[in-house]
């Protein structure tokens, strides 16, 4: 009975985190962009510091008509938002937020491989949406998404492998148990590459060519309205939380703090929040890359850097062994 209750409480906590954290990131993005770009609306909706902006957006999406194009593949069109969103819930299950045994939803022995493989499944949602919409612009956006995944998945895998080499395990809790602060200086390049490649997989600016409004309207999501469109937005914000959480666990020590480890999950949330702010900051700072620039950046910059990081990790392991 106690085991069943423990599992139920973990699932409830994960669902609450999955529903709340992406909304917090979305609300924060409204506020940060309002300050950086002088947007008045998000600063005043509802009174104190625009607290009701997120509520207004939710009501707006709920009131919009749910339209399915006449020529669309209805079943795939309707299923695509769920396929884009649910993989991030599965990844959240495997991310440890604290040192206690219960601080991870479910222990996965090959945690790195699991989370990176499942994150890649989310791209299928964009492909399904682009193909099923019966819209050439949507199809082109879906194809751009696939090409972007192929280019940026490799540096993510290579840099994650360098951390696994350093820790001697592919388990996420095992990596945190083996973490040492002197890792940070010589793993920092890998961390930047991992974080940057993750932004590209999420199609966040400046890597948002698959949804370039000046070229292909809104890419794979052009024909979506109402709550189905809102699910794609929720998937984007959930992806930000997952990417920042993984970067924290792999490269920033997770629940380890510079002064005390006793804070546990608070350190994890704090580091994740800082990285989420960086994601928003990049959106309002850099212009969109062209498709050729985006591909060139992955193959001629990020992949060589990730290979160099693996080589450096091998050298360090040999020297200290």
From TrEMBL:
Catalytic function, reaction form: a quinone + NADH + 5 H(+)(in) = a quinol + NAD(+) + 4 H(+)(out)
EC annotation from Swiss-Prot or TrEMBL: 7.1.1.-
A family per Pfam: NADHdh
The keyword Transmembrane is assigned to this record: yes
Keywords, in A-Z order: Cell membrane, Membrane, NAD, Quinone, Translocase, Transmembrane, Transmembrane helix, Ubiquinone
Residues passing through the membrane, by range: 42-59, 79-98, 110-133, 154-176, 182-200, 229-252, 264-285, 297-320
Signal peptide coordinates: none
Topology of this chain in the membrane: Multi-pass membrane protein
Subcellular location: Cell membrane; Membrane
EC primary class: translocase
Major location (coarse): membrane
Task of the protein: NDH-1 shuttles electrons from NADH, via FMN and iron-sulfur (Fe-S) centers, to quinones in the respiratory chain. The immediate electron acceptor for the enzyme in this species is believed to be ubiquinone. Couples the redox reaction to proton translocation (for every two electrons transferred, four hydrogen ions are translocated across the cytoplasmic membrane), and thus conserves the redox energy in a proton gradient. This subunit may bind ubiquinone.
Similarity field: Belongs to the complex I subunit 1 family.
Subunit and interaction comment: NDH-1 is composed of 14 different subunits. Subunits NuoA, H, J, K, L, M, N constitute the membrane sector of the complex.
Protein name in UniProt: NADH-quinone oxidoreductase subunit H
Organism: Streptomyces coffeae
